[in-house]
Amino acid sequence: MATVDFETRQLLKAYRKGLISDDLFEAQMREVQNGTGQYKVNGTSHGSEREMIKHLLDEYRCAENFAAEYLNCWKEVSDQDCVKGGLRVIQQREAYHAKLLEDRLRELGGAPQCAVSTEMRAKEMAVYASKDKTDAEKLQYIAPQLENLSKGLRFITDVIDQIQEDQQSKELLRSLVQDELSSGQWLLEAHQLLNGTKAAA
To answer: Is 70 exceeded by the pLDDT of residue 117?
Structure first.
């Protein structure tokens, strides 16, 4: 309700100053009153850019925190030194991402809420924390998720494309996407190396 009231006041202020047309004012007021915002994260609508960003920061923080957790478990049972070295970097990167995202979420007045489901946790840990599965098998498991990483990161890049006001959050997210692409590339190269799938140059 507070968000709706704020949005309404801002729209009225812009309208009275002649900054927006009658038609645009009416359309935006309908959006606020109907609770259907113009900002979307994973199909969920938000009434303001700030709410959209907070939603994404929390979801992304949750995913990165869990990735740091299962990558740490994998690193501890890794059977290949070359994999263990790369995992160390990526795991630290994911943990740092989670911290940056939480810090920004709190700066915007939000608080962590998202949590990984019990089912998802059990499924992923059964693979990554397993002492019975080799690094090659774990890389084979993760590879399909990385082959079209740009598509997998679309839930972040779609939000980046919508941000107009909060340039700090926008550039934070853009930088993290670059890290994700780098991590994904390393994991795919490790998969190709250990599973013999690298095409001849």
So the answer is: yes
User: Could you tell me the two tokens for 1?
Assistant: 């309700």
DSSP element (H, E) containing 44: strand 44-46
Domain ranges in the chain are 1-36, 49-195
Query: What pLDDT was estimated at residue 56?
Result: 96
> What is the spatial distance between Cα 85 and Cα 80, in angstroms, rounded to a whole number?
9
Decide if pLDDT at 188 tops 50.
Answer: yes
Indicate the SS3 state at residue 126: helix
pTM for this prediction = 0.78
CA nearest 191: which of 137, 139, 119, 125?
139
CATH architecture of 49-195: Up-down Bundle (1.20)
Closest CA relative to residue 39, chosen from 134, 135, 127, 166 = 166
**Integer angstrom CA distances of residue 51 from 7, 41, 66, 127, 177:** 11, 10, 23, 35, 20
137: its two tokens:
């098998």
Q: What is the mean pLDDT of the chain?
A: 89
Q: What is the pLDDT of residue 199?
A: 41
Q: Which residue has the tokens 């998202």?
A: 114
